[in-house]
Amino acid sequence: MDNRNKNITKYKEKNEKHDSGHSFGENDGGGEQIAARRINLPNKLTIFRIILVPVFMVFILLPEKSILGEIWPKIFAAALFFIASLTDFIDGFLARRLNLITDFGRLMDPLADKFMVLGAMVAITAADAFAPLRWLSIWATALVLFRELAVTSLRLVVKSSDEVVISANFSAKVKTLLQIVCIMTILLEKIIISQNLNTPDYLFSYITMAVMIVATVYSGFVYFKKYWGYINPKK
């Protein structure tokens, strides 16, 4: 009788330990739980920003004679682009404030910014509504694309060489801010700024685009100056 009670007690203790989750670390559920925790709120905002890119591109590319008219597609595009830009600042703030900084965030947050800016620039270049800016927007888009590809390649080299994930520095954040201001100006100048200030069409678009180009090139130079040792051809 005593042996039977001991066996029953051991069986209950074993089941209680299993139910409490102490043994999950080495089971199938443990890996899934760890993977789920990696998709935190800042990372979800980063993914949401990427999803918004093709949506606002559609509104930018809508012809002026579409069912939405000439003004509303630009307003919708600007609103969606602004929301996407806002998530860029919010996810970084939350990641630092809540100590949720991850390698995924360090890598994907800058990439999401690139998708956002390049998507808008490509759409603006292709849209007939912004044809007067096309010659400059082609060069601006090409320079932004070249800079982003170069810096992304540098990130991969540094990551593979030293297992270091390069986070966005101050010059890169200023560059991104100026790119956002430039794109918002292009989308809204003709329907809001020019009419209220009685200025020539796209005057401020030309100015902000020139400033953005300078900031883009300079921020790329800062990255390569700091991490040149990883790609120095003399080594």
Q: What's the total count of β strands?
A: 0
In round numbers, the mean pLDDT is 80
Please tally the helical runs, counting DSSP H or I stretches of 4 or more residues: 8
CATH topology category name of the largest domain? Four Helix Bundle (Hemerythrin (Met), subunit A)
| Sheet/helix structural class | mainly alpha
In whole angstroms, how far apart are the ends?
79 Å
Radius of gyration: 25 Å
Supply the CATH class of the largest domain: Mainly Alpha
Q: Flag low-confidence runs.
A: 10-36
% residues in beta strands: under 5%
Instruction: Give me the CATH architecture of the largest domain, please.
Output: Up-down Bundle
Order of helices and strands: HHHHHHHH
Rough outline: globular
Main β-sheet description = none
Q: How many separate domains make up the residues?
A: 2
